[in-house]
Amino acid sequence: MERKEIVVVGGGPAGLCAALQAARMGAQVTLLEGDDRLGGQLVKQTHMFFGSQKQHAGTRGVDISTMLVKELEQMPNVEIRTNAMVLGRYEDGALTVDDNDQFKVIYPKKAVFATGASEKMLMFANNDMPGVYGAGAVQTLMNVYGVKPADRVLMVGAGNIGLIVSYQLMQAGVQVAAILDAGPRIGGYLVHAAKIRRAGVPILTRHSIKEAVGTDRVTGAVIVQLDEKWQAIPGTEQTIACDAICLAVGLSPFADLFWQAGCDMKFIPELGGHVPARGQDMQTSVEGIYVAGDVGGIEEASSAMVEGYLAGLNAASALGYGGETVQTQRTELETQLNDLRSGPVGEKIRAGLAKLYAE
Amino acid sequence: MRLEEHPILKFNRGKQVTIYFDGQPVEAFEGETVAAALHAAGVYHLSDSHEHHRPRGLFCAIGQCSSCMMVVDGRPNVKTCITKVRDGMTVETQKGKGDLGWNAKKS
Ligand SMILES: Cc1cc2nc3c(=O)[nH]c(=O)nc-3n(C[C@H](O)[C@H](O)[C@H](O)COP(=O)(O)OP(=O)(O)OC[C@H]3O[C@@H](n4cnc5c(N)ncnc54)[C@H](O)[C@@H]3O)c2cc1C
Ligand code: FES
């Protein structure tokens, strides 16, 4: 059994920033990451980031991660453990951890859960066939391991993730047969969509996938057009030849630890599903448990980072660290978050947060 | 197939090793997951589901969905998307729930 001051679970942008901020204020921080490398979603992002300058927009995601990790590794009061998957959280505050194949029990004074999100599945015939992937899996294969996932991919979902992963596939020499979206409009930023269209890839709105074709690996897909009520229009089916179908139909928060801790949970579609209720200070209904990043609502790395700083700041200041500048820093971070969420892009997240804070 | 050239990324592969897929040697590199190495070798069908024996392959690649479970070094239900290769490792297509005999034999 180990006792720790602040434990951060998850080493994506949110967790890295939470750990950094608390450590800068002088707290003893332990960062637990289940994977063998830090960075979360960032390590797979080869594109220049959108967002605000303060959160390194214009820098490639993977480079942002390297920057944050470098600073963290230099801090003497930070302990980083990779291959350390948090398995559960118990009533007495214990975290159980599979730490490099060893079972450990850790009691933190304060905990920040920044576990990110997992991909949503979609219902269609043969959706369990080899060759049907989450968009993240395809990214992991090609951008982390340098393995070509397929020769010709059908992408389902024209939000930012679908568009960006399509572009990354093309960079890796994979053909993109088409990008489908059930909605009437392309959900992602038009700069991304334009790049893909210029390369000759059709983006079919009001289309969905009906069936994966193949025996033990995908050889094609049957797609179908949808009407205004999102129903398939009979007779509009067509078969597209492809050896992979890639799903980019949204993420849902990976909120298991909050459920286990007994945090009040709310179902908010705008935030991606069930998320823990929380205050502006990022603290959940269970004292000493803070949330940051996609697990508290699917958004972007930029806001995940600011939420991380804020959660780290509040956890450390609750333990008496930080001194007089804390309030100024807190206000500054809250302002940054509001700025990120202003404008039309932030509309959905603002609606979600309004529901979250409504009591 | 492995990517050798990429406009942005450089892949620093580890030492070359050999793993055995259903008895056949497969080239792999240290640091790779079993599922990535099999993919590179053109193996996509990793297991058969328990109820209807439907073929299953890689889906999430981050250890969350259990679609990639195989028998590794005789041990069933290993998530190959988060298990790194090791020289001489044996990997078999898992049929159904997997035989837990390995555990009984050990203890
Ligand atoms: C294709 C794509 C393109 C994107 N482009 C942009 C962009 O241009 N700009 C932008 O701002 N955002 C972008 N994003 C979004 C951004 O990547 C995410 O919003 C951000 O990574 C969320 O950060 P996070 O720290 O909350 O979660 P993640 O990055 O998902 O990190 C969570 C971490 O927690 C770990 N973890 C989970 N459970 C446990 C556990 N029980 N124990 C230990 N560790 C655990 C995971 O292994 C992971 O490392 C993009 C996302 C994708 C998929
Ligand atoms: S592919 Fe999902 S657990 Fe391995």
Describe this structure in words.
The complex is a heterodimer of chains A (359) and B (107). Chain A has helices at 13-24, 61-73, 135-144, 160-171, 190-198, 256-260, 301-318, 326-340, 347-357; strands at 2-9, 29-32, 78-81, 84-89, 95-99, 102-113, 117-119, 132-134, 152-156, 175-181, 203-205, 207-214, 218-225, 238-241, 244-247, 251-253, 265-268, 273-276, 289-291. Chain A is an alpha/beta fold. Chain A folds into two domains: 2-118 and 251-357, FAD/NAD(P)-binding domain (3-Layer(bba) Sandwich); 121-247, FAD/NAD(P)-binding domain, CATH 3.50.50. In chain A, strands 1, 2, 3, 4, 5, 6 and 19 form a seven-stranded mixed sheet that branches. In chain A, strands 8-15-9-10-11 form a five-stranded parallel sheet. A three-stranded antiparallel sheet of chain A has the order 12-13-14, with no helix packed on it. Chain B has helices at 34-40, 101-106, and strands at residues 16-21, 24-29, 47-48, 55-56, 69-72, 75-79, 90-92, 94-95. A five-stranded mixed sheet of chain B has the order 2-1-7-5-6, covered by helices on one side. In chain B, strands 4-3-8 form a three-stranded mixed sheet, with no helix packed on it. In chain B, a hairpin with a 2-residue loop joins strand 1 and strand 2. The N and C termini of chain B lie far apart (40 Å). The interface between A and B is medium-sized, with 32 and 34 residues. The complex binds flavin-adenine dinucleotide and FE2/S2 (inorganic) cluster (FES).
CATH top level assignment of chain B:
Alpha Beta
Number of domains of chain A: 2
Fold-level CATH name of chain B: Ubiquitin-like (UB roll)
Point out poorly predicted stretches of chain B: none
Under CATH, the topology of the largest domain in chain A is which? FAD/NAD(P)-binding domain
Q: Which percent band covers the strand fraction of chain B?
A: 25-35%
Structural class of chain B: alpha/beta
| Helix-strand sequence of chain B | EEHEEEEEEH
- Sketch the topology of chain A as an H/E string, one letter per element: EHEHEEEEEEHEHEHEEEEEEHEEEHHH
Q: What's the arrangement of strands in the largest beta sheet of chain B?
A: 2-1-7-5-6
Q: Based on the structure given, which CATH architecture of chain B is correct?
A: Roll
Mean pLDDT across all amino acids of chain B? 90
Helicity of chain A, in percent? 25-40%
